[in-house]
Amino acid sequence: MVSHLLNTIRNVVGVTGNVISLFLFLSPVPTFAQIWKKNSVEQFSPAPYLATLINCMVWVIYGLPMVHPNSTLVVTNSAKAVA
User: Do the beta carbons of residue 62 and residue 73 sit within 8 Å?
Assistant: First the structure.
């Protein structure tokens, strides 16, 4: 009973983490839309976007099956790194 409850909690926390991660990933979309409209990057710094890319790539390595079995980190973060 306890292991079933623990598994359920892990799944809920995992799904919640992926949803939150998706929203954080989509947060710069208004900035990208503004850059697209004006055809200029103006004073926007590329540093946060490069840091996000590096972060996603590190999580992809961490989520590889040989490092962390039964993980969805590879799917979520590889999609973010590619996009």
Answer: yes
| Chain segment 10-37, per-residue pLDDT in tens | 888 888 887 887 888 788 889 889 989 9
Closest CA to 54 of 73, 21, 77, 24: 77
Instruction: Encode 57-78: b = buried (16+ Cβ within 10 Å), e = exposed.
Output: eebbeebeeeeeeeeebbebbe
pTM (predicted TM-score)? 0.55
Question: Could you give the CA distance from residue 61 to residue 68 in angstroms, rounded to a whole number?
Answer: 9
For the record, the structure tokens of 41 come out as 């990057």
